[in-house]
Amino acid sequence: MKYTVSIFVLVLLSLVMLFLNLNSGNASISLMDIFQDETAQKLIVDYRLPKSLAAILAGIALPISGLLLQELFRNPLADPSVLGITSSAGLGVAMIIFASSIAGYFGFVNNPWILSIASFVGALIGLLVIGYFSTKLKSTASLIIVGMMIAGFSSAIIGILQFFAPSEKVKTYLLWTFGSISGLNWTQVLVFSLMVGLGILISCFTLKGIMGLRLGEQYAHSMGIPIKRLRTLILLSSAILTAATTAFVGPIAFIGLAIPHIVRILFKETQILKQFVLVMGTGVVFMLTILWISQLFETGTLPINIITSLMGAPFVMSIILRKSNFKWDE
């Protein structure tokens, strides 16, 4: 499929799924009611539209983060969740939720800036650990094991915090781990947008370097590409994108891993800039579709993470079985 046709199809699918999401929900209110009913206007503008925008932002952030990490580590299994980055970002959020409740101050929990900063610090620490081990280890399996250890360590610290936290905060955190796009207000969507925009802006400065890095570090050096600076920018961008999504949507699994591979399989595009755009478009369509599916059940909204895990886990297993087809496999 040609690149321009692919972009047109993705934009069209995104608009269709956005329309479906604005028309979907427990209340039997359609988008056309916005011009006649004040209640419908408030529901769509203050609830459904922010939820859809949050899905769009998550659909941009996680797949781009996964694409950058796969290119940096030359590892088809690299993504924020598999490498433990999502878990470390979740640890930052957990420390705010639990530690503030233990201290008896709850103002931090409702502050989008504090949650974003805590998630960013957690994600950045996890990425720095992975970045260090990636320079020491040559085995793909070893790097994945390190990611599992990061996730295990984060879970252990979270468990300690849960033990001392009030039961209502434990329930709040458990619900957060399921992943939810509902309930975001416009201030939170604005903060989410700013962080994703910053992460994407930083990532744009890495694309030229990634093209050189694909041909090997020696070739990249000969082209004058600063490898250390490129690595720093990729890690920083991935940390911001992962932190923003984790803070506002929860720890969404498999999206960052699956979408870049889906793009490679479907569109057969090798140029990094075109891949970059196609990954964003595919991620948006995918997240809006998942959001729509989650609202189809009469008993309530199904957690996002359940749907992504059901769809993503088989895909990851297929990647492991087929990973010898990837040119950067060790």
UniProtKB/TrEMBL annotation:
Keyword flag NADP: no
Coiled-coil residue spans: none
Transmembrane segments annotated in the record for this chain: 51-69, 81-107, 113-133, 140-165, 185-211, 232-260, 272-293, 302-321
Keyword line: Cell membrane, Membrane, Transmembrane, Transmembrane helix, Transport
Family annotation (SUPFAM superfamilies): ABC transporter involved in vitamin B12 uptake, BtuC
Keyword Manganese: no
Pfam short name (any one): FecCD
Localization per record: Cell membrane
Membrane topology of this protein: Multi-pass membrane protein
Superkingdom of the organism of origin: Bacteria
Family: Belongs to the binding-protein-dependent transport system permease family. FecCD subfamily.
Protein name: Iron complex transport system permease protein
